Amino acid sequence: MKQITRIMGIDPWKITANKIEIEQRRLQESLTSIGNGYMGMRGNFAETFSGDHHQGTYVAGVWYPDKTRVGWWKNGYPEYFGKAINALDFAKIRLFIDQKEVDLATAEVENFELSLNMKNGVLTYHYIVAGVRVTAERFFSIATQELAVFKFTFENVDGDLHSVRVESFINANVHNEDSNYAENFWEIYDHGTTENGSYILSQTVPNPFGVDQFTLLARQEYLGDFDITQQIFEDGAVIDTLDEVLPFSETLTLEKRVTVLTSRDYDDLSVMTNASVALTDSLSEVTYDELFNAQTEGWATRWELADVQIEGSDEAQQGIRFNLFQLFSTYYGEDERLNIGPKGLTGEKYGGATYWDTEAYAVPLYLALADTSVTHNLLKYRHHQLPQAQHNARQQGLKGALYPMVTFTGVECHNEWEITFEEIHRNGAIAYAIYNYTNYTGDETYLAHEGLEVLVEIARFWADRVHYSKRKDQYMIHGVTGPNEYENNINNNWYTNTLATWVLKYTSEALSKYPRPELNVSADELEKWQEIITKMYYPQDEELGIFVQHDGFLDKDLTPVAELDPKNLPLNQNWSWDRVLRSPYIKQADVLQGIYFFGNKYSLDEKRKNFDFYEPLTVHESSLSPSIHSILAAELGYDEKAVEMYERTARLDLDNYNNDTKDGLHITSMTGSWLAIVQGFAQMKTWDGQLSFAPFLPKAWKGYAFHINYRGRLLKITVNDSVTIDLLKGTPIDLIIYDHQINLTDQYKCSVS
Ligand code: BGC
């Protein structure tokens, strides 16, 4: 049985705790992160907490290029490593009651309660200390994304007269947890005070790579019962002191509003300053309740479409909502310059903003749960970065475009050779997302225009990256890392070879449907692509009836994971890297990822044989993995396995399954629990543009229900002792349910088979 750590209470809509986790505060902070896509914050206390913790506030798209430093420089390495940097700490206060500072790591605190309400993204905690009940409430506005609101209430509970002092900070003197060389990424450009607060203007330190420096202008202002008694600038922070006396049975409130503007939106400093002042002024007309209501309404609209209801398991219910909540707090598609980083706005690990995770795992969810324009934006993001992807290919001496494994701008910014040079399968996922969008929406205009421009360059990359083996009269791809990062420099990764050929084929077909003479794809080039398609080599084993992960995989010691002493797990925390690489253990779906992508191309028998072979060797040490196994298990009728894999993805962070949630949430794999329910349990497929379902109900549940957007319709799928499909919006649609073809006009009901 895998060890889990569950520090938060079970509630269908809330993440709760009734104690301050002194030893595991980082974990508690990760789990109470909030964000609005524009900026986000770990669940740090505003007040001082002197224990071990990780203070982190992040502004989307604000980063720093840190010089790549390695012992042995290899040609083709990216010049720099891109880091998501900790932005200004604007939540910070120092709270003094009767001149004594409240340090939440050491203070004698009673009645502590913490609650993150996923219905509206409001984080609240309260406690009693020194005769005063303190309530802190915060949210990052989704109506005005530059705004963060912090409201404190102080209630006299013991009848003595108390003095309350709040020192309110915007602190630019922050550090990155993952900084290699203890650098400071910010320098202060300007700071000052206003009648009702203060501001700080800071800029990322210069870099030698020509990457734009970022500027942040953060401003704090107050409402409520307190008066500003002092304003200073000290040690990289503006600090406003606010004082008030708290008489018997009275309550004081202090609302701190912070606005953060960035040079991403304003290239001119004076324009940015004017906009910041104007925003603060306009907000001063708006009450707290109005801001709060707008927040609640904004989230209600999101939930109306996205919510998945599970009956019979509050744990599962909380898990799926938490994942959707955190995913949408990271990205809701409003800004096409942004993307979805593996830790979102909840931590720094992994550095960059954009991985193949977006195309492989997030796109299917956003297609169904948001407006089509959201996925369109994600596709456009890659289209805008085509020149950089061409640059990446050139860096490796290759033609066409190589999309980066890790990036902010399109230029590869990850510098481990086995990833940068070898994990080229990512290029396939970028192309696959174009197919996915086109197939799901039925809208071919993106494919015909921007899509083909991307596809042709990716196809050119593959055509150059393959080599011809004279001996076998076949094309091959050597020296790669597949999705399974627990093996490097392998030859003929089945998944990579499959995707490469598929791209060549899909691109050729799209070109013949939508000719694009200006892309200069010559007849010779097309012929060459065709030859590669025909003569590609795929490792397979006839006897086992499986696609082989790569040449040589079957010669490993294929002892199943179940036979390992559990104390070896997770392997990446217990074994030397060398031992991991030599082992047969698979970090994440690899062959099975390919079978999942092209589900209509393989028979059930092929799927079963491959699943039965690879699942026992898979350790799922990438959080991206279990959802794919869950979906395939469900299709194969392995219901228990499907549920087991679902549980790993649904509560991965809430139960700290991989023992690393303290570093931040696994944002990109949060899509996995939704995928497992919708594409797994409900078996929703859109193969060849035909929508179909074949649901089953997990034994422990009484029912589940979800909505999807599909080609202008809104459908509701409810599964309990029967299956009900409601057409809530849009024109009638042909569907397949189990094996029945139906035309859905309003509602269809059948039993679960
Ligand atoms: C996985 C990659 C993934 C990255 C970011 C790694 O652990 O192996 O597939 O892109 O995490 O989520």
UniProtKB/TrEMBL annotation:
Binding site for substrate: W356, D357, K587, Q588
UniProt-listed Pfam families: Glyco_hydro_65C, Glyco_hydro_65m, Glyco_hydro_65N
Presence of keyword Glycosyltransferase: yes
SUPFAM superfamilies, A to Z: Galactose mutarotase-like, Six-hairpin glycosidases
Gene3D superfamilies: 1.50.10.10, Glycoside hydrolase, family 65, N-terminal domain, Maltose phosphorylase, domain 3
Glycoside hydrolase family 65 central catalytic domain sequence ranges: 321-674
Catalytic residues, chain numbering: E485 (proton donor)
GO MF, one example: hydrolase activity, hydrolyzing O-glycosyl compounds
Glycoside hydrolase family 65 C-terminal domain segment(s): 684-743
Keyword Glycosyltransferase: yes
Superkingdom, natural source: Bacteria
Domain Glycoside hydrolase family 65 N-terminal residue range list: 18-264
Keywords: Glycosyltransferase, Transferase
Any GO BP annotation: trehalose catabolic process
Family, similarity comment: Belongs to the glycosyl hydrolase 65 family.
Name listed for the protein in its UniProt record: Maltose phosphorylase
Organism lineage: Bacteria, Bacillati, Bacillota, Bacilli, Lactobacillales
